Amino acid sequence: MEQKKTIKDVAELAGVSKSTVSRYLNHGYISLEKQERVRRAIEKTGFQSNFFARRLKTKESKLIGIVLPRMDSVTVGKLLAGIGRVLEPAGYQGILLVSQLSVSKELENIRNLQQQGVDGILVDSVGITREHIRLGRESALPILYTGQKHEGVHYVKLDDRAAGRMMGAYLRQMGHCRAVFAGVSERDTAVGIDRKQGFIEAFTEGRRNARVDFVETGFDFLSAYNQAEEVRRCQATVVVGATDNISLGILRYFHERGIKVPEEISVAGFGGYEVGAVVYPALTTVAFDYELVGMKAARYMLDLLQNKPVEECMDVPLFFVERESVRNLTKACEPEQPASMNGMT
Amino acid sequence: MEQKKTIKDVAELAGVSKSTVSRYLNHGYISLEKQERVRRAIEKTGFQSNFFARRLKTKESKLIGIVLPRMDSVTVGKLLAGIGRVLEPAGYQGILLVSQLSVSKELENIRNLQQQGVDGILVDSVGITREHIRLGRESALPILYTGQKHEGVHYVKLDDRAAGRMMGAYLRQMGHCRAVFAGVSERDTAVGIDRKQGFIEAFTEGRRNARVDFVETGFDFLSAYNQAEEVRRCQATVVVGATDNISLGILRYFHERGIKVPEEISVAGFGGYEVGAVVYPALTTVAFDYELVGMKAARYMLDLLQNKPVEECMDVPLFFVERESVRNLTKACEPEQPASMNGMT
DNA sequence: CTGTTAGCGCGTTCAG
DNA sequence: CTGAACGCGCTAACAG
């Protein structure tokens, strides 16, 4: 519980001036001899430079504000892991603020961060509004969005349309012609529109006999479960949930009614959460690498901070994870092998 | 992109001195008239006080360092949500550092935080070592641990022994006499020892015919899956996983071999993750409220920061979630109803 | 290469 | 109740 050591203490102990110590800490224009003396003085005192004093001068906080819609979600966790993985080696740390899925709270958080002296702000947004844009213009702080995109802002996002197309192409190839898309409101551009449109395109493109019905649900398991009856009525051969959670809710409903998946009806989803592998039957899905999104976003932010030419390559790979929940209609015989650990990880 | 406003700008615009503005911002010994003038000047300039300058003076950062073992986990997410829920209203923010499940990284993070000017440190630890204690002594910063406990440090933790006992008592009441406990290494005091011991106590206490076998696995789904054969050999009527993940791995194995749960063998777990409700059969489990742990920890930290008398009440409630995976051996007839939405949330 | 001198923006005495 | 003056700990500009 010693008195906090300052650069002055070190200077005195080393018999040099404060600026020499400061130089030692920074650009290091200093003779080898004094360098050694300072080094030892620092070691002896256990000195560490005062964060706030330094920041007050340099105007650099080495802090990145991170605004999250919520905390208790796997995808957010992955995203953060990715962000941390590139921010930390670069000497940056993150300050976390949570918006509780509210746009106004999100804006408040951004405003807050703008004055807290962070160097930049990463926002995993619930939706980019005009106010977001305004806030961005008013401050020199770089803001980078993930999850949503918008004209004139920096963002990193996975390609929802491509994900949709991927699924559409797969189901088509598996011989399906009638699908139900259990999706979310179109107010969500990424999931509600792009993902669905991509699917419909690839699934129906250039064939007359294909058809996609649409049932709207919320994002959560339960609301999907509650819409499952409606989904069932569509009489499709496959139901595609806009999210793994949605598919899981439907799967659960089918299971309770004794409807066999994939024998009687196929189910597929988007997200690639681990839980999809644990469930029976294991869920076929398009997996997103959220950790990679986080890493890309962080790298992008770092570039922004150094005014580097920002590379516009924002394609985050998608993985198709084929598991057990989709039936191949083109084969005469059913696959006989038991459920396997395929695509588990 | 205006020039950053300082307290000086406000003072000039309001026609008062800097100190008056400062007073307005803090203890407010200021006449109503000037109060109004300052208020408007602040509004006009959009002034917000400089974080670093203020901290440099007050020695209070209103920042809490949070050290996490990993980010991509549901429990950590819940914990954080809880922490945020009480820290934020108190005007504090969190700085997050991730230890990648490494003790040395965890220590490094703590050291780092100690010099970054945070007011306190919350550590969701992977294990408290002597070095942790030493670090704590060397600095005046309060450190509070969660997840693990240790003599002479502040901690908030759920009662693993009680959780174990809860499960033991339940299974006993359901008429089970032979159990396998699929647990983790005893190097983990909380999960590896306390939880198991609690279970064994309650399950066997005072009856000769009860028996508990032990099979060691890792924390993850897959390693449990790989030990499932071993578990099966024990010929017990019920298998208890130390973690829902472990139980899920075993469930999966049983499913693949066509072993019916709970008809042929029962399965139960600890944790209460949502995924346990989605799986078939839905997993009976002791649920922990990690969000509450987070809230308690944060509140405890706040008390520490204000030198309040710390209330030693650290009991975090446990919930027994009875679902479908345990068979009642005391009844002659099987329950006939289909799987239901019970205990879903 | 080095010490001296100024502030960064704010809070806080200390006279008035 | 208010303003002037000082200093938090550090970095940067300046002479030497």
Automatic annotation (TrEMBL), chains A, B:
- The reply on keyword Transcription regulation is yes
Keyword Transcription belongs to the record: yes
One of the entry's Gene Ontology molecular-function terms is: transcription cis-regulatory region binding
Q: Which Pfam families match?
A: LacI, Peripla_BP_3
Q: Which residues form the HTH cro/C1-type domain?
A: 2-26
Give the residue spans that cross the bilayer: none
Keyword terms of this UniProt record:
DNA-binding, Transcription, Transcription regulation
Q: InterPro entries, per this entry?
A: Cro/C1-type_HTH, HTH_LacI, LacI/GalR-like_sensor, Lambda_DNA-bd_dom_sf, Peripla_BP_I
Give the signal peptide as a residue range, or say none if absent. Answer: none
Which part of the chain is the HTH lacI-type domain? 5-58
Can you say what this protein is called?
LacI family transcriptional regulator
Organism, scientific name: Selenomonas montiformis
